[in-house]
Specification:
Keywords: ATP-binding, Cytoplasm, DNA damage, DNA recombination, DNA repair, DNA-binding, Helicase, Hydrolase, Nucleotide-binding. It is found in: Cytoplasm. InterPro entries: DNA_helicase_Holl-junc_RuvA_I (IPR013849), NA-bd_OB-fold (IPR012340), RuvA (IPR000085), RuvA_2-like (IPR010994), RuvA_C (IPR011114), RuvA_C_sf (IPR036267). GO terms for molecular function: ATP binding; four-way junction DNA binding; four-way junction helicase activity. Belongs to the RuvA family. The protein is an alpha+beta fold and 222 residues long. The chain has three domains: 63 residues, OB fold (Dihydrolipoamide Acetyltransferase, E2P) (Beta Barrel), CATH 2.40.50; 74 residues, 5' to 3' exonuclease, C-terminal subdomain (DNA polymerase, domain 1), CATH 1.10.150; 48 residues, Helicase, Ruva Protein, domain 3, CATH 1.10.8. Helices cover 46% and strands 20% of the residues. It has nine helices and six strands. The chain has a five-stranded mixed barrel with strand order 1-2-3-5-4. A hairpin with a 2-residue loop joins strand 4 and strand 5. It starts with a strand and ends with a helix.
């Protein structure tokens, strides 16, 4: 599995870039949002990648962060969501927007992506809602950074990222949970109160568990 590549952008197309890595060109498909964030042709870039393998197809998809890559992997697990639909959702909402829509049950936001109907959008929200806190925890953690571009072109093979809960010191977990909730649009006061209450009930909880518990506390009653 090719998990990350770094090299020079040879050319840019409407839905992909060609990255030259020591004389070998890799076609890497990206969302509109990711393509817009990439440098111009001739510049160097590093992307996390996911390799789609089918009987008649080998296709690389590129992402600027592990959070974006993880959402792509999870979106692809939903019935009716292929690589093109996943990139459409990520291109419309961005990884943070996808997490926000799924965590808050915002079907309309997911439906706004090109080619995504109401039933498919509802499946995305229902099937991935329980997994959102783990991915949000990845985004909130300071250890999850965009890849740096090395001086020399390189291809690095790595296993696909998995959003597994990681134990963190209580203070760090609370800070990361608070960051994730404020990114969802909650006010600092209400988010801090929910995180503090959740941490009081689960003092050794990891970030994802605190996020999940705080979301339940913040959910509308009745």
């Amino acid at each position: 599995m090719i998990g990350r590549i770094a090299g020079r952008i040879d050319y840019r197309a409407a839905d992909h870039v060609l990255i030259d890595v020591k004389g070998v060109g890799y076609l890497v498909y990206c969302s509109d949002r990711t393509l817009a964030a990439l440098p111009a042709a001739g510049e160097h870039v590093a992307l996390y990648t996911d390799l789609l393998v089918r009987e008649d197809l080998l296709q690389l998809y590129g992402f600027t962060s592990l959070v974006e890559k993880e959402w792509h992997r999870l979106l692809m697990s939903v019935q009716g969501i292929g690589a093109k639909a996943s990139l459409a959702i990520l291109g419309t909402l961005g990884p943070e927007g996808v997490g926000r829509a799924i965590a808050l049950g915002d079907v309309n936001a997911v439906k706004a992506a090109k080619g995504i109907g109401p039933k498919t959008a509802q499946r995305v929200v229902i099937e991935l809602k329980d997994k959102a806190p783990e991915v949000m925890a990845m985004g909130a953690s300071a250890s999850v950074l965009a890849p740096e571009v090395p001086a020399d072109d390189e291809v690095i093979e790595a296993p696909a990222a998995k959003a597994a809960p990681v134990k963190a010191p209580s203070g760090a977990a609370q800070a990361e949970a608070l960051s994730a909730l404020t990114n969802l649009g909650y006010g600092p006061g209400e988010a801090a109160g929910a995180v503090a209450q959740a941490a009081g009930e689960m003092p050794e909880a990891a970030t994802a568990d605190l996020i999940r518990a705080a979301l339940k506390l913040l959910a509308p009653k009745g």
